[in-house]
Amino acid sequence: MTFVSGAGLGAALAYFLDGQSGSGRRAVARDKAGKYVRTGSGTVQSAAQSAAAQAQGVAARAQHAATGGDSAPSDDVTLTRKVETEIFRDADAPKGAVNVTAVDGIVELRGQLDDRDQIEALEAKARKVTGVRDVRNMLHLPGETPVNVVGTPGT
């Protein structure tokens, strides 16, 4: 047993006192030891920190659900992007055919689509987005005259 202990001690000394790599190995060992001292040796303190972080996450999710989920975007550009994300979510959504703008929470949908049901579905999806006060649907079918609402921004 003494021989094995002596051999282990000798190997450790050779490892840390090596002329070429010993100083780097000692620095790494010193840094790791400092880490364990700073974090409290790992078991009880890290378990407490983990439990506290998990409780904080649960509380945040509960508060988010209690306040109605999503909050209204703070500006029209953000609202426009949020509406685009919702109405263009499906793979077959007409991303290049519809222009979305928002002014003071009022969303305008402009463009030409081939299907009346798709026009109505995009309007319905836009109305469901938090922060949308109203939707002006100016989408039209091929051959129809585009709708132009007088007095609206951007017309």
Q: Explain this structure to me?
A:
This protein is of the alpha+beta class. The protein folds into 2 domains: 2-66, no CATH class; 76-140, Histidine-containing Protein, Chain: A (2-Layer Sandwich). The protein is built from 5 helices and 3 strands. The chain has helices spanning 2-16, 22-39, 44-66, 76-87, 116-127, and strands at 98-103, 106-112, 134-140. A 3-stranded mixed beta sheet has the order 1-2-3. Helix 4 crosses helix 5. The radius of gyration is 32 Å and the shape is elongated. It starts with a helix and ends in a 15-residue tail after the last strand. Mean pLDDT is 80; it is low at 151-155.
The helix content, as a percent range, equals 40-55%
> Which consecutive residue ranges, at least 5 long each, have pLDDT under 50?
151-155
Using only CA atoms, what is the Rg? 32 Å
Number of strands: 3
Distance between the termini: 91 Å
Q: Structural class of the helix and strand makeup?
A: alpha+beta
Quaternary assembly: single chain
Strands of the largest sheet, in order across it? 1-2-3
Task: Determine the mean pLDDT.
Answer: 80
Number of helical stretches of at least 4 residues: 5
How would you sum up the global shape?
A: elongated
**SSE pattern, N- to C-terminal:** HHHHEEHE
* Largest sheet, strands/sense/barrel: 3 strands, mixed
What is the number of domains? 2
The percentage of residues in β strands lies in 5-15%
SSE order and pairing:
Layout: H1 2-16, H2 22-39, H3 44-66, H4 76-87, E1 98-103, E2 106-112, H5 116-127, E3 134-140
Parallel strand pairs: 2-3
Antiparallel strand pairs: 1-2
Helix pairs in contact: 4-5
